[in-house]
Amino acid sequence: MQRTDVDLKELAATFLRSGRAERDLSPHTISAYTSDLSQFREFAERAGVQGASDVDRRLLRRYVAHLGDRGYSRRSIARKTSAVRSMLSWAVKHDIVDTNAATDLPAPKLDKSLPKVMKAAEVVRLCELPPDDDAIGLRDRAILELLYGSGLRVAELCGLDVGDLELGQAALRVMGKGRKERRLPMTGPAEEALRNYLAGARSALLGLATGGVAAEDAVFLNSRGHRIGPRSVRAMLAKYLKAEGVAPVGPHALRHSFATHLLDGGADLRVVQELLGHESLSTTQVYTHVSTERLRAVYDRSHPRA
Q1: 177 is catalytic
Q2: Could you confirm whether 287 is annotated as catalytic?
């Protein structure tokens, strides 16, 4: 029985639906895949290719060259070709196409960039910047203390519900990537900041909601009584960093700092892996390179023969 060819638009739509339902991909990943696969489909159609089975290595090499000619960075090209490779791999697995033409497609070599890490003293100052006499300030202080003290991803922080907090045990539960739950400790300052926020500030923000749309379960709320989102957290962090005159970084820099400072203090790499929720130890190992760089900087400053 001859297989009916599937056009690229239909294949991409089916692949993305599967990603949501079966692999629980994050909205951010789905959005990136959607954009990248749409861009590839438009290029393929201009080249006269509409069916998934007609995608071959020659077309893909032309696509990579096209992206380079358009001025995309090596990192962007690698991401876009990875999206196509993932879709074709899924299509092979589900017997939609015979082979994945992108399997051996050379990916641009990327420079390994080390994560941006703040100094411990800088993080301490940052966490003390929000005022402690209004609801927004108390919320912001609790957010910063948790991002740094427990190494949360910003999406994990925004997804926290009141039922996830175990204040009596200075711990909390978060739902990480792949719907994997992990239980994390809280620092003393983070627990105190959370208690201060929950004592009255959260209910004050909850009272700002109108039309019965308050986020009753959410720990962190915005100024409209809704669950706070990653964009609002990034804007909040940028505001305090600007006030402090510190180079702008994203919330993930606090997670990077959490991991690096733990390793600097002698924590075991596998313990840090568990705390971060990394599936692979190799993902966590980048922080050992950060620590080595920091040690080298201290050595160069301090040793008379360095």
Answers
A1: yes
A2: yes
Gap between the terminal Cα atoms of the chain: 73
pLDDT interval class at 21 (50, 70, 90): confident
**Active site (annotated) includes residue 119:** no
The amino acid occupying position 22 is: E
Q: What is the pLDDT of residue 84?
A: 92
255 is a catalytic site residue: yes
Catalytic residue among 85, 141, 153, 256: 153
Judge whether 252 counts as a catalytic residue: yes
The Cα–Cα gap between 139 and 145 comes to: 10
Taking the model in full, what pTM does it have?
0.66
Question: Is 94 assigned a catalytic role?
Answer: no
Selection from 23, 60, 22, 28 nearest residue 41 by Cα:
60
User: Pick the residue with more confidence: 288 or 252?
Assistant: 252
Question: Of residues 63, 148, 197, 287, which has the active-site annotation?
Answer: 287
Catalytic residue among 226, 234, 252, 294: 252
Q: Which of 177, 182, 226, 234 is catalytic?
A: 177
Report the chain's C-alpha Rg in angstroms.
23
3-state SS, 153-192, equals: CHHHHHCCEHHHEEHHHCEEEEECHHHCEEEEECCHHHHH
Q: Is 235 helix (H, G, I), strand (E, B) or coil?
A: helix
pLDDT at 213 over 50: yes
Quote the strand ranges of 105-259, DSSP E: 165-166, 171-175, 181-185
